[in-house]
Amino acid sequence: MNHFFDIIMIPIQFIIVFYTLYYFTIGFFGIWHSKEKKILTPRKTFAIIIAAHNEREVIGQLVENLGVLRYPREMYDIFVIADNCTDDTAKVAAEAGAIVHERTNPTERGKGYAMEWMFDRLFKMERKYDGVVIFDADNLVHPNFLLEMNSKLCKGEKVIQGYLDAKNPTDTWVAGTFAIMFWVTNHIWHLAKSNIGLSSVLGGTGMCISTDILEKFGWGAHCLTEDMEFTMKVLMTGTRTTWAHDAIVYDEKPLTFKQSWDQRQRWAQGHFDVAKRYIPKLIKEGIRQRDIRILDGIVHLSQPHFLLMSTFFVISTWIYNVCPFFTYILNTVLPAELWSVITIVQYVLPMLILLKIRVNWKVWYYWLFYPLFIYSWIPITAMGFIRRHNKEWSHTKHTRGMSYNEIKAIGKENVKSK
Fold this sequence. Notes:
Elements: H1 2-28, E1 46-52, H2 59-66, E2 76-83, H3 89-96, E3 99-103, H4 111-123, E4 131-136, E5 140-141, H5 145-154, E6 159-166, H6 173-196, E7 207-210, H7 211-217, H8 226-235, E8 241-251, H9 257-289, H10 292-301, H11 303-317, H12 325-332, H13 336-357, H14 361-367, H15 370-375, H16 377-386, H17 404-409
Parallel strand pairs: 1-2, 1-4, 2-3, 6-8
Antiparallel strand pairs: 4-7, 5-8, 6-7
Helix pairs in contact: 1-6, 1-11, 1-13, 2-3, 6-13, 6-14, 8-9, 9-10, 9-16
């Protein structure tokens, strides 16, 4: 019996050790942000694209916000895709100053299809742009966003992800814990990888893609996590996604646990889908090109598999009183020191990040619920695996209409001593 468990459990232990040490090591490099020399002269032109499905509650504030960025207004245009809308999203966006393109396609639904449709139109226009910037309709944007992306493009970067902040982190405990997750990810994942030269991952919004990359490789990303799909598609060609820590976008976080569950389950479904299609290709290309950045992409795509595997191990250890073998495994293969590292990654690092960015006092109260939020990923990921073949797009309704001035007035613009 023990020999049987050896065959199953010991390899799992080594995988857990690898992932834990890997994440801890990378996360360490995200504690600081080195100041970089920036190009502050506007040189690049941008097409800002917003895919909006029934977003009349929030689209106006975003378009007005984008219209007053600290960037020459003649060097960027704002396009809104009114995608299969049944409300007056198109009218509200147009009145706010956007160039609106209405799309109706009941069969090809979802942001990925809407983006590809708009890119095709964009490339046929007389005016040409250096970069395409993508936002979600519920976002608000820091005034320096385009300046930061301009600097990155001028330095030769091709695929860039901006800092994903929260515009409503104190609304509910769900919004607060969701915001904490993004802040932590921004630092111990995106910034950390940027500091050591690895590839980041597009986050669906607040991202900039060089037009020549889009024209060369096409969009072609239609799954539930089209941002991740495009990231891996270009990563295989050796084009990494870089991180723009000072290009800040404020995203609306879900207010209820059900909204959070539905959104994260969609992400999990898409993650499994992309992993199945791209991990074999990344392994092949990573070895052929001898590129550690491509191999690192495999680790990222296998995260949900690791979560399910480690959960299986933890549940198995619960029966150690019935089968002493598990006690032996825990104490020998995974010593107490490693569990200490896991605790640091899950609890201490988030605390350090919150101290670093000096969050609103109310967020510290929500931090107490953070473990509950994090461990809720386990059943969500399991459901995502079960439903991984379901590619039906589920829309997240956004209702938290705010202006950028309101964010500053109530102190939600984090002072990131980066």
